[in-house]
Amino acid sequence: MKILVTGSSGFIGTNLVKYLKDKGYSVKTADIQKGKDLRDMSVCLKATEGIDCVIHLAADNGGYFYLKDNDNCAENNYAIDSNIIDSCIKNNVNHLIYASSSCVYPIDNPENLYGLFKLKIEDEIKETNLNYSIARFQNIYGKHETIGGIKEKVIPAFIRQINEGKVSVYGDGTQERSFVYVDDLCEIILNMIKDKTKFMDVGGKVTTLKDLLNKLIIISGKEVEVEYGTPVKDRTNHFPKDISKTSLIKGLKETYKWQTNK
């Protein structure tokens, strides 16, 4: 089976490509960091030629504040996703794995334009004759995740600030989130391919941001100043069944070690 991983230079893609190659699969990659802009239909057609399975991870993505009201981000993703779908159809790809997001919730009113466009693409995929799998990712974390910059997410942001000696928390830390370690996600994706699973809500360990931060501080062994903000109205969360295997504390230890020693 020849597999194409889009977004192969990103956080999840980097981990997944290594995982699949270690399992003996033939893997082709396509990523804007390698000069393959998937907003260009000709690039998508060439990338999907002769491919049996496309794992479509490529996206303009980031943390809560990056995605909030970011019209360009949503439009970039819609262009990429539409091209990949059409290319898979034209090149007779056997199986398309689409990385959707928990941002599609609540379904009747997604939390941002990023989630709305992800939901729209899900519906478009279902209307094709493609063999497909849709996976709605919660918060994936682990090795190779972006630290620093405008796309930084909560765990690397906490790790960076812990190592700087002071952490500022948005809100009072009571916000709940679900976290899935990236190694678990790689296994889940491969099983979805093998089992031809049509849909999966990829849920993990649910914890508050305050508990998450406290775990990371204990792991670091550092004295850290923490400043909490005023309470904020949390988003409407959807927490599916926890299907991850790695305990949160183990995953955080591995992530902290990698981010600190890389």
Quick tags:
alpha/beta; Rossmann fold; six-stranded parallel β-sheet; three-stranded mixed β-sheet
Short description:
The protein contains nine helices and eleven strands. The chain is α/β, with parallel strands linked by helices and 262 residues long.
Write the layout of secondary structure elements.
Layout: E1 2-6, H1 11-22, E2 26-30, H2 41-48, E3 53-56, H3 64-67, H4 71-90, E4 95-101, H5 113-126, E5 132-137, E6 139-141, H6 154-164, E7 166-169, E8 176-181, H7 182-195, E9 199-202, E10 205-208, H8 209-220, E11 225-228, H9 248-261
Helix pairs in contact: 1-7, 2-4, 4-5, 6-8, 6-9, 8-9
What percent strand? 15-25%
Total number of beta strands: 11
Alpha-beta content class = alpha/beta
Number of domains: 1
Oligomer: single chain
How would you describe what is shown here?
The chain is of the alpha/beta class. The chain has a single domain, classed as 3-Layer(aba) Sandwich (Rossmann fold). It contains 9 helices and 11 strands. It has helices at residues 11-22, 41-48, 64-67, 71-90, 113-126, 154-164, 182-195, 209-220, 248-261, and strands at 2-6, 26-30, 53-56, 95-101, 132-137, 139-141, 166-169, 176-181, 199-202, 205-208, 225-228. A 6-stranded parallel sheet has the order 2-1-3-4-5-9, sandwiched between helices. Strands 6-8-10 form a 3-stranded mixed sheet. The protein is globular. The protein starts with a strand and ends with a helix. 41% of the residues are buried. The model has no long low-confidence stretch (mean pLDDT 95).
